[in-house]
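Handout, page 2. Input:
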Amino acid sequence: MSRAAGSGGPAAVSAGTGRLAFVDVLRVLIISMVIIHHAAQAYGPTGGFWPVEDQATSDWFVPFYTVNAAVGLGLLFLVAGYFLPGSYERKGPRRFLKERWARIGVPLVVFVAAVNVPLAYLASGSPEPGEFVRSLYDDAWQGAYFHLWFLAHLLLYTAAYVLLAERVRWLRPASPGTPRQMLPPPGHGASCLTQLP
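Output:
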């Protein structure tokens, strides 16, 4: 018995967009977990700094933090990395990097310069500029990135992939304009490898 056309299924594509609906749903779920994680940080022990802390904290959040930290962003990196080769091959290195910079790099730089650095400066008591820059350096620029570390890493990994792909012949398509077939989704073993320290 066959399914009716357009009945969906695991590889259902959103109508007219060519997007994989299940991947969009997965991204929304992961991002929702990240939002809930950060919203709950004021009420439970997360093992990190959080600027707002409620006196009524609970250890009830610990299992959620543990699972979320172990799976959430690693899975988001895995999804982003899985689609990177196809996008790179369709666009070529120059256009690919230019579009990634416009989508990730420009917002990152603007937000770091206009929001994060001024907030970090004010939160540190408005020290001398040289002392402030030294403190950012000593903290591995954490005060400049805050929650945008993910975008910075994504941009860095994208650039590393392009450098590697340009230098390693087996990552290139057979000829320009000939797309390489996409690999099957990684198995459980590959997914677990993304979580190793």
